[in-house]
Amino acid sequence: MFLTQTVPRQREIIEVVLRNGWDYMRSLLTGGKTDEPQLPTPAVLKNILVDLGPVYVKLGQLLSTRPDLLSAAYIEELSTLQDEVPPVPWSEVEVVIRKQLKGPLEETFRIVNHFPVAAGSIAQTHRATLHDGREVALKVQRPGIDTTIAQDIALIQGIADLVARTDFGQTYDIKSTAEEFTKALEAELDFTREAGYTDQLRRNLSQSRWYDPTQIVVAEIYWHLTTQKLLVMQWLDGVPLLSADLSINDNGQDLITKRKAVTTLLFRVFFQQLYIDGFFHADPHPGNLFYLTDGRVALLDCGMVGRLDPRTQQILTEMLLAIVDLDAQRCAQLTLQLSDSAQPVILSRLENDYERMLRKYYNVSLTEINFSQIIYEILQIARNNKIRLPSNMGLYAKTLANLEGVARTFNPEVNLFDEIKPLITDLFGRQLLGDSPLRSLLRTALDIKSLSLQSPRQIELLLDRVTSETLQWNLSLRGLDGVRRTMDDAANRLSFSILVGSLIMGAAIISNRATTSQLSYLSSVLFAAASLLGLWLIISILRSGRLR
């Protein structure tokens, strides 16, 4: 059905692919296999997605968060995708705003700037002033974008259904990836979700023992004006962090100290999101990190967020320690713990892959190690070993990569190990003792008391079973079913051979001593039965193919 409904769009996609990637298409048509499709080069793929429009730019941005699916070259190229497009004229935007407001536009806002401060594929942002003087940002959904997205989503799902029938689609679970993308895209059309994410992030960051919460800002949401297509939030005066002039706020600190303070703040803010809160801003690229005029740092655009459950947080914390220790065996074990597939994995091969990867860091100073690059390489090794990891691992890796990239660009003198060492130490302390050490100590004491009371009785029962010979051992060894069946077959054939031999011998004895016609008849019957059983035995052996 989707193929007939989207024929014009299909024609446009084919034209774009041929225009940008004719060499790729020619090689695919002449030498490619239908069940083993190969992607075009990273640059060609990026050009195709840009020409196809905003929905496919969003698809590229999503794929840039999946290093478990794509190699580092594709991740790096797709990470540069920006969905900036020409702005929609104010006359069209005004219609959308008036439909979303409960009252007249003039009674809600005193001033609205008709020229957008930013324009993206889904929405564009205008600056406005409420009648009480508060400055706000209006994020307005582009007119008609929901219809365009619905058509492209139907087409993407249809293509994913076709690709899912190939070995490639099954190996990389293309259908689930398409479903994940379409859900993320549909969620972006509902600005109330982004508003909820923004509120939750602001609440989470409002308290911490790692940093001063007053130094980090997340915009306040004006819920009485916010709808699915209009997001109204606090206006924050500032500039992107990498273009900030830190000398504006002269508080007696030199520029090096200021830069160090900002990078320390960012690391601690994001480490709290990742390893304590389990809810994190998943797109900290330079445009979403602002340096405000009052010297504080702001996080913008909370449309893309990630979540980590406590078990995953603990595994990832141990993974950081394994990376610092260059422990390949532990990295392999933790990767398998993260895996959400039951497909068998050759552990020795996985450990060898990690050993080769980590070996190049043996003589490198910890201050020079690129942690996000190592995490990308870990996900790449998992992909090569066909280990399917949860999709949030891609968001986690991309968040760390963006954060580390911004930190190194903003402050080239940053010592990454010094920044994360006290945080990892505190994280392990939290995991061992919890937020309340006294409560954890009391709980442990109760567990030890319970164990001490139960142990003598359990030991007594064990000894009683051993001495009374009632102890039973249940062993489960893999691969024994085949051995058992083979032994059963061999025993059955041996029994049939003995039976056939016995019938032949019995028939021969009766035949030699036969004095009546009845005994001769019995001898013939026994010979016939022995011949049939022997023939059946020979046929079964030949059919099994195990003559030798």
From TrEMBL:
Keywords: Kinase, Membrane, Transferase, Transmembrane, Transmembrane helix
SUPFAM superfamilies: Protein kinase-like (PK-like)
Alphabetized Pfam families for the sequence: ABC1
Transmembrane segments: 494-515, 521-542
Ranges for domain ABC1 atypical kinase-like: 81-334
Domain of life the protein comes from: Bacteria
MF terms (GO), sorted A to Z: kinase activity
Chain coiled-coil ranges: none
CDD domains found in the cross-reference section: ABC1_ADCK3-like
Membership in a protein family: Belongs to the protein kinase superfamily. ADCK protein kinase family.
Protein name: AarF/ABC1/UbiB kinase family protein
Provenance organism: Anabaena sphaerica FACHB-251
